[in-house]
Design brief:
By secondary structure, the chain is α+β, with helices and mostly antiparallel strands. Helix content is 19%, strand content 37%. The protein has a five-stranded antiparallel beta sheet with strand order 6-5-4-3-7, with no helix packed on it. A two-stranded antiparallel ribbon has the order 1-2.
Length: 108
């Protein structure tokens, strides 16, 4: 991007088409994958095994169930929050707050 203004940076991110937002969902790779693939991060995909680095579910490991490019969040298996009425709601985590431990089979 050309500009440094935060408002224009946010506008570019929020008005980007969904196929371009896929790149914004990149997460760092584990040390083993980093040396194997010679890259620091890759976009998260459904089926990847990840570990959450921050938040209520810190150190939780699970498989990515859903990737939401619109809200730039990922849903990890086994992370859900109980609402006041007792219903379970899946918890969404930012992609930058997870580390990829194992890639889905077709990417290895």
């Amino acid at each position: 991007m050309v500009t440094k203004q935060p408002r224009k940076q946010r506008l570019a991110i929020y008005s980007a088409p969904l196929h371009a937002r896929h790149k914004y969902l990149s997460a760092p790779l584990s040390r083993e994958l980093r040396s194997k693939h010679k890259t620091r991060s890759l976009p998260v995909r459904k089926g990847d095994r990840v570990r959450i680095l921050s938040g209520d579910f810190k150190k939780h490991e699970g498989e990515v169930v859903k990737v939401d490019t619109k809200s730039q969040r990922v849903q990890v298996e086994g992370t859900s929050v109980t609402k006041a009425d007792g219903t379970q709601v899946p918890s969404m985590t930012k992609a930058s707050n997870v580390v990829i431990l194992k890639l889905v089979e077709d990417r290895e």
